[in-house]
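Task 17 of the worksheet. Students: predict the tertiary structure of the chain below and write it out as structure tokens. Keep your answer in the requested format; marks are given for formatting as well as content.
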Amino acid sequence: MTQIIEFMSSSIFTANAMLDGFSVILQADTLLYIGLGMLIGMLVGAFPGVTATMAVALASGFTLTLDPMQGMSVLLTIYVAAQFGDRVPAILINTPGTPASISTTFDGYPLAKQGKAGLAMTVSAFGSAIGMFVGIILLAVIAMPLARFAREFGPAELFALVVFGLTMMVGVSSGRIIKGLIAGCFGLFLAAIGRDPVSGDARFTMDILELNSGVPFIPVIIGVFGVAEVLNQMVTHNQDVSQRKPIAQLGQWLPDRKTSRTLVKPTIVGAATGSVIGLVPAVGGDISGIIGWDNARRLSKEKEQFGKGSLKGLMAGDTSTTTTLGGSVTTTMALGIPGDSVMAVLIGSMMIWGIQPGPGLFASNPSMVYSLVAILAIATVLSLALSLIRMKSMVKLLELNNAYLWIIILLFCMVGTYSINNSVFDVAIMLIMGLIGLFMLRFGFPAGPTVLGLILGPLAESNLRRTLIGGGWEAFLQSPIAMILFIISAAALLFPPLREMTKRRKSELGKTSQFSSNVP
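Model answer:
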């Protein structure tokens, strides 16, 4: 009887939280902000080189004056819509609108050259929408249980979780582990600037009064993701690439029934791949899309068609890419560990709003998970509808001169940064970080670990101190969860170089044996 009463109470509580979460989003002003985010996101995705991370970082400076839920509506919708808009340049000019659409180019552009650009964009849009909805369901089902489990974490487990998040982003830094570690340590150094949280002593402030409160998040984020990217495009600008004409012959738009049936299997493969990869912090949609495409190719009886204009490959890659978004939001909100660089930017904004992502978030505000579900669902439906409209203006946008876009972005970066605190110092920080970010881009240092180190540094320091004061180093050895997270973190750093060493050794042995066999 007691169990029945507890179940009914839990069900009523969940229903009330669901109603509260949905009611916040269904207000007219919030829906207006979702529409604004959708338009920005679609445009962002359509322009090659303007990443979703850059757009969210730039928009965060303007949304800090909004209500937190309204601001999150804008930022999350930009993220969702960019996942649809970036497929347009990937298919029409073989240039990913964002890194997430890399796998789209594998089959999307070959299809466009065959006169099937319209069909490719339609299949891509539906694949992206299906993947998004699978990710949203994943968020609704897993977020609360994961948060409840993580609420049992003590300081030792929370410190290990932060280390896990940092090393995962470093471990997937495109094989640049040493550079990823350096970038992460630089972020931790930035996080240490300011007043010591215990003693109150100034650390690395260089007697600059504005640094006593620490390095501001948003100017750093806008600098390394926005200004640095624009400067890098200016430096590496290729006139031939910029004047590449998009394919204007769109052809058929809707697949027939027979074609639709053949896409069921790759859709399932892509959704399953993205669901698993999305829950791993820092992996991101670009890697997920490539893995989903490759998994579908391995399971297909028509392997030779992949990469030459296969709708199955296009569907699998795009479905896998967008499915990761739900898992990324889940780990970000439930654990406080950003699922990717966009979520790292979102965490920075949430902390300024006074919201601390992590295990306690859904306990103190259980309706938030359903608000996030509503935002993502509405944004997905609107983005899909807009993607299916035959807008030849999207093709025209690709012919615009990039120089105009660079000027607009730089102006918005400066205005957005200044508007946060009406501070010229913040603008100076943004420009300095933009130059540092340009250096990082040119020499292969990933920006993600730097931002993650800046955001998670204070959390790591506070939990490390609490652990050492409460039980010393032995506290980590006495925590199975902490030890498991440390082991996984070490594996994430050590496995890639060990794998490369093994491949190199096998290659050398193969060459040696071949040489020996050729010697008479």
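Marker's comment: The two ends are 86 Å apart (CA to CA). The first helix runs from residue 2 to 25.
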